[in-house]
Amino acid sequence: MVSTVTSVACLVGAPIAIAAPDPGDIAVGTVTAVEPLAPEAVLPGSENSQRILYRSTTARDEPTITSAAVYFPPGDAPAGGWPVIAWAHGTIGLGDQSAYSIAGPGARERDWAYLGTWLKQGYAIVAADYAGLGTPGDHPYLNGKVEAHNVVDAVKAATRQYSSLAKKWAVVGQSQGGGAAVTTARYATEFGGPELDYRGAVGTGVPAYIEHILLPLGPHMPPIKLGAHTTAYVLYILNGLRTTFPELNIESYLNDSGRDWLARANTSTLEPFGDELTASGVVLGDLFARPLAQIPNLPTLLAGYMGMPESGYDKPVFLGHGLQDTDVLTPLTLTFAAKMQATGQPVTLRTYPTDHSGAVNASLVDSVPFVRDLFD
User: Fold this and answer.
1) Coiled-coil region(s) at which residues (predicted)?
2) Domains in the chain with CATH codes
3) Residues 215 and 299 sit within 8 Å (Cβ to Cβ)
4) Using an 8 Å Cβ cutoff, are 337 and 349 in contact?
5) For residue range 46-96, what is the model confidence (pLDDT) as tens digits?
6) How far is the first Cα of the chain from the last one, in angstroms, to the nearest whole number?
């Protein structure tokens, strides 16, 4: 069976439009197309990098086609192939135009410096876009298990496609991607199976327990001074809930203004959307027609959707966090680390005198040797 969705495949020369296979007809981790990366998505210092489309899983365990950028270090691969770093990116938006393998990183200077460090250490990098970013369907933002499937399947697809890649891999991520990296760490062995050799994870700016910010949302909620993009994050989460749980009828909890901003969020890129929300003076409480807490068993639903597991890790996990982080409040991530330690999980925590974004590169002094030890 062939779907009506078209994709673009190009190994050499001009792109050729082809009919994409129905994702339900192929196994996860199967490459369906290979494309050249746009110049803005090419990591400086990498060679022969490409965009792959591959079969993975999205909300409600439905099959989908998603995408990833694959970056190779210069020179010949070592014996056994380049070890792989799976990069789980932070929030860039929900619109297809913001997909990492199409537009490159939103925090370009920061992320290129970070990924460039791993590249210089001799790792190939597989950067998954997550389901619904740059490929058909909506992105179930912060759906941890979907992100974990997407990351693992990207590594599986890349290592099948390129003989120069080793099967041994670790995952690193920031912010949304920090949560994705940690959730991936919990399920990597299960989702990857014996085909892959998973070694461990690094998460910075990990969004622990941020599901709690949704519990008081509703009309007449007092205006609270929030971080620059917190309102955008909330609208993204509501879109993610709508994508994952259509039966909740999320729109019914919003007024006309709320539904308008929800629709805008679903096609937006984070930075300009956050600026638009700020310029418009949007107050979250003014977007609701009734309390979100009317959703039955909301805390449990949110914990299952976006909460990160506190136990069940079989490989080492490194958490790096900025003490001045106002996007993901530091005490919450410290609490998460403490609960992991209390259950005997193999977690290492380091903090840095910087903010949410600054922790990414500040952590390298600790995370580079941490990952090196994973591959020894």
Assistant:
1) none
2) 2-209+311-375 (3.40.50.1820), 210-304 (no CATH)
3) yes
4) yes
5) 999 999 999 999 999 999 999 999 999 999 999 999 999 999 999 999 999
6) 45
301: tokens are 């639903």
Long-range CB contact pairs, 323-327, < 8 A, 24+: 323/351, 323/352, 323/353, 323/354, 324/353, 324/354, 324/355, 324/358, 325/205, 325/355, 325/356, 325/359, 326/227, 326/355, 326/356, 327/175, 327/205, 327/227, 327/229, 327/230, 327/233, 327/355, 327/356
User: How many other CB atoms are there within 10 angstroms of residue 74's CB atom?
Assistant: 10
Q: Kindly list the distances between the CA atom of residue 108 and the CA atoms of 35, 103, 105, in Å, as whole numbers in the listed order.
A: 22, 10, 5
Residue-level pLDDT at 24: 74
Mean pLDDT computed over 227-240:
90
Please, what is the average pLDDT of the chain?
92
Phi/psi region, residue 281 (left: phi>0; alpha: psi -120 to 50; beta: rest), is: left
pLDDT grade, residue 12 (50/70/90)?
A: very low
- CA 24 to chain CA centroid, Å, is 23
- Is 16 a residue whose pLDDT tops 70? no
